[in-house]
């Protein structure tokens, strides 16, 4: 059995995103831009901000210096 909020909340969010947000967002966007001035901009440079797998550790963060990954089991 699924609880009522587990059904109602996703449906309400879908209705908001699909039908209400196109009308509400233009009204509230000036206030949001004053409170949160930083804008997220998409760059046309495809390579900017991307690292190859050889330059990143397991978590995707840049690693310092060479790293070795061994497939051998250590006893």
TrEMBL record:
Domain of life: Eukaryota
Function in brief: May activate the NF-kappa-B signaling pathway.
Biased composition (Basic and acidic residues): 41-57
GO cellular component: endoplasmic reticulum; lipid droplet
Family statement: Belongs to the UPF0729 family.
Region (Disordered) residue spans: 41-75
InterPro entries, alphabetized: UPF0729_C18orf32-like
Protein name (record): Chromosome 18 open reading frame 32
One Pfam family per UniProt: DUF4512
Binding partners and assembly: Interacts with DERL1 and AMFR.
């Amino acid at each position: 059995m699924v609880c009522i909020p587990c059904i109602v909340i996703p449906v309400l969010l879908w209705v908001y995103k699909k039908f209400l947000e196109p009308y509400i967002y233009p009204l509230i966007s000036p206030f949001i831009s004053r409170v949160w001035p930083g804008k997220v901009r998409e760059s046309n440079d495809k390579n900017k901000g991307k690292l190859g797998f050889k330059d990143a550790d397991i978590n995707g963060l840049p690693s310092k210096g060479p790293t070795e990954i061994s497939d051998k089991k250590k006893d």
